[in-house]
């Protein structure tokens, strides 16, 4: 089981009231919410291996170089401008910022593998781990971008959190086909054509979901669409789409590298086995006392395989 940890702790932050605080008054809503999410996932799905993936770089340079608008609307403004000038900083709520190191300390003390790679997003770590794994993989995320990794043959599924951690949507190839009208493994190509405002991905001007789905279904992949375009093929292109695709040829030559999760990120060796007991019990006790985490940590420890 691969956790898109930033997606989960943002969901926890907004889903649990910030009146949930440590003894010193520091909000710990994201910390407590994430711990309870993991406990729920372990109880419900009984994974034997788990990795909590992290963003070492939420806006990687290689993606920004290809498409400068990539996540540009999320860059911090205002009194953080000095830090932004030295390197883009994501706009994270002030009360969430100090909770992220606590989350990392809790994961380490429990013994849940925490993986990141300089210059890459959590999505890329997930893509690489998924690519390396021969057996079944469940990816827990609220990010549709990771639908691109579903593969019924292995199987690789996304446990999509849009309806809540207790009401996960199981996303497989049939779901992708039913939702978007495209081949089940073609979500990345579809998203490249359609675009995604939430990521600052422009897409092809004038090509919406229906046209993107029609093109991918007709030709099978973005690569095949572009090959047909370059070969002068006219059959199978919805009205006006050839002109729009031709105008967006430069974008389409770089966008796949932005949209696709990397599969070859250099990652440190890690034991992904879900622990039966805490790796560092003393550290966990200190964290529980300092941040008032006894109840959620007990729930997580009770859920572990033992």
Could you characterize what this model shows?
The chain folds into 2 domains: 2-181 and 265-280, 5'-nuclease (Rossmann fold); 187-259, 5' to 3' exonuclease, C-terminal subdomain (DNA polymerase, domain 1), CATH 1.10.150.20. The protein is α/β, with parallel strands linked by helices and 306 residues long. β5 (156-160) and β6 form a beta hairpin. Helix content is 45%, strand content 7%. The longest helix is centred in the first third of the chain and has 17 residues, at 29-45. Mean pLDDT is 94; it is low at 78-87. A 6-stranded mixed beta sheet has the order 3-2-1-4-5-6, sandwiched between helices.
Secondary structural class: alpha/beta
Specify the helix fraction band: 40-55%
Number of domains: 2
Which CATH class of the largest domain?
Alpha Beta
Outline the biggest β-sheet: 6 strands, mixed
What percent strand? 5-15%
What is the straight-line distance between the termini? 18 Å
Please tell me what the overall shape is: elongated
Overall average residue pLDDT: 94
> Would you identify the CATH H-level superfamily of the largest domain?
5'-nuclease
Helix count equals: 14
Low-pLDDT segments, ≥5 res = 78-87
Question: What is the compact description of this entry?
Answer:
With 306 residues, the chain is of the alpha/beta class. The chain has 14 helices and 6 strands.
